Each structure stands twice: as C-alpha cells, then as structure tokens.
C-alpha cells in the first residue's frame, strides 16, 4: 500500500470546496502542514497533474472512479469512516419548479444511484 510522506506536494481544489474547506481548517492545527503546490479549478486539471507529476490530492472516490478502474491513478483511504455529503435541489419561491424541472428532478435519484453503483 502506498504511503504519504511528509511534505508531499498537494494539488487541491480551489475554495470554496467542501474538502478544501476542511483541510484549510485543519492546517491551522499544530503539527498539521500542507505542501500546497497548485490549486485546480476543475477535477480535470487536478487529475492531469496527478498523472503527470509526483504529487497527490485529496478527492472523493467518485471523482477518480474511472481512473482507479483503468489503473491510471491509485488511492489510499484517509479514514475508515464514511463521509456523508448532503446535496439538495432547491428552487426560488419567486421561480417555482416548472413541469420540466419537476421531471428532471424526478430523474436525479436514479442517476445518482447508478453513479454510486459504478464507483463501488
């Protein structure tokens, strides 16, 4: 299993980003250091850096599922616990859902479940 060394160059998402926000909070703790060498505005940029350079990132598994399956990236779990992220679909009271947006919203659970099944 690969191990992370101290001072490992990191490529992280630009804030605001849930993972990045958590790491930014942690970096103020004594003994916790980040060697941030690049901020990427998209997962495409981050994954490109990972495949071409000696660096690492902290990304959700689903973001690199295809690369893990192809063997172009490797991953190491950071924790045994599962992080849960709640995603909401919201609309303005000024612009309520149309019939079309209700139909699209009804499709979302199936699309999400299919994506989760591919990353498992």
Query: Which strand order do you get reading across the main beta sheet?
Result: 1-2
Strand segment tally: 2
Low-confidence stretches: none
Mean pLDDT: 84
CA(first)-CA(last) distance: 19 Å
Fraction of residues in H or I helices:
25-40%
What's the story with the biggest beta sheet? 2 strands, parallel
Tell me, briefly, the overall form.
globular
Order of helices and strands: EHEHHH
Question: What secondary-structure arrangement, pairings included, does this model have?
Answer:
Blueprint: E1 9-13, H1 18-26, E2 35-40, H2 43-52, H3 65-70, H4 99-119
Parallel strand pairs: 1-2
Explain this structure to me?
By secondary structure, the protein is mainly alpha-helical. It has helices at 18-26, 43-52, 65-70, 99-119; strands spanning 9-13, 35-40. The protein has a two-stranded parallel ribbon with strand order 1-2.
